[in-house]
Amino acid sequence: MQIYDVIVVGAGPSGSTAARIAAKNGLEVLLLDQKAFPREKVCGGYLSCKTLRLLAEPLPDKVVEQSIYGVRLYDGHYRFIQKKEPGLLGVTVRRDQFDQHLVQEAVRAGAQFISPLKVRYVQPVEGFQKVHVYTADGMLAAKKVIVAEGANGVVAQRAGLQKKWRKWQWGFTLTTVIKGGQRAAEQAVPYVELYCIPFLGGFGWAFPLRDGYNIGVGSWACQAHALYRYVTPFLAQVCRLKNIGQEAPRFQGSYMPAGGFPRKLGSRSVLLTGDCGGFVDPFSGEGIYYGIRSGEIAASEVVKSMVKGDYDAGANYRKRCKQAFYYDFYCSLAKALRSGTKRSICAGTPKADRFLADIMHIMKNPKAYRMHNSS
Question: Which residues contact 241 (CB under 8 A, 6 or more apart)?
């Protein structure tokens, strides 16, 4: 039986990044995903400038929907303030195209990619430096496994590496895409729009695409039922503001883990990355940055373990992730709770100006929560 150096389970941003870096460093890498690519993914589709800096190369034009240079913040009465940056603040993408691009980058680096192929569970083999990976088509083997299956996967749970998270440790989002033609796109560029909605830790958004908007709402998962009732009138109001027609929307819901809670990140031979590791900013809801960064860290630790036979990749991965993310997640969680339902945010007030400045600061700086000018 062939034994790969590393098998990566899940080809989202975290998994594809880990596969690319491991392959680039000469490892024999197999990247697996249960869905055929390109595939749709529920997501707002906004990549902050700090995320763009992590990418191996600039995104091709065909992947970028809109380049973003500013943010509009709407209060609860749909009045807004805005701030524009002289430089690029981020871009919007469609996740099917973005994720496909990252997979292609991993393949170009030398990784082998197979999809669709469902992984049922993984099992480290005691006494041997390998892990068995059981799939719908049979068993595979690797020296290390990186699990990047997302927040709702079962591989980490079946391996005993992840307990079922409680509802208050999750966020929940509802997203749809509204086509608005060129007129809508011209109205929105170059701003992303964030809306203060009456839910604890919640935001609404409208992110411009080439031919419309990605529109959605998100908050703590405990409020999921209320979000379902709220999202349709919210969408209607946003469409009225933009003077675009509204077809019957098809909202897609998705749970995402909130960072800031202690979670197991794997074992000596199996590492959990991205949403699977709970790496999502509780305040901003940003997950792609942390997915890519955790994939980088996981791959680098696996590479080190191939050079040093007694190197505990899992322990060092956990240590590095805690140093890189956990303090920021704690501060972000506290900020989400302090901001509450944002009813006190009123456009035109100094508090709203500071709040918007904080949001943009977070988009630009990986360590924004540790810096004195982020309140």
Answer: 78
Show Cβ contacts of residue 326 under 8 Å, excluding neighbours closer than 6 positions.
259, 260
Which two structure tokens, joined as six digits, stand for 8? 């990566």
Q: Which two tokens stand for residue 72?
A: 């509009």
**Three state DSSP letters for the chain:** CCEEEEEEECCCHHHHHHHHHHHHCCCCEEEECCCCCCCCCCCCCEEEHHHHCCCCCCCCCCCEEEEECEEEEECCCCCEEEEECCCCCEEEECHHHHHHHHHHHHHHHCCEEECCCCEEEEEECCCCCCEEEEECCEEEEEEEEEECCCCCCCHHHHCCCCCCCCHHHEEEEEEEEEECHHHHHHHHCCEEEEECCCCCCCEEEEEECCCEEEEEEEEEHHHHHHHHHHHHHHHHHHHHHHCCCCCCCCCEEEEEECCCCCCCCECCCEEECHHHHCCCCCCCCCCHHHHHHHHHHHHHHHHHHHHCCCCCHHHHHHHHHHHHHHHHHHHHHHHHHHHCCCCCCCCCCHHHHHHHHHHHHHHHCCCHHHCCCCC
For tokens 């170009």, what's the residue? 108
Q: How many residues does the chain have?
A: 375
Q: Which residue has 């933009």 as its token pair? A: 242
The yes-or-no answer to whether 3-40+95-166+258-334 and 46-94+167-257+340-370 have a common fold is: yes
**pTM of the prediction?**
0.93
CA angle 23/28/29 to nearest 5° reads: 65
Place of tokens 């980058």: 105
Residue 282 pLDDT exceeds 90: yes
Residue 168 has pLDDT above 90, yes or no: no
Q: For domain 46-94+167-257+340-370, say whether CATH 3.50.50.60 is its number.
A: yes
pLDDT digits (tens, 9 = 90+) for 191-223: 999 999 999 999 999 999 998 999 999 999 999
Q: Which CATH class is domain 3-40+95-166+258-334?
A: alpha beta
C-alpha 157/C-alpha 164 separation (Å) is 7
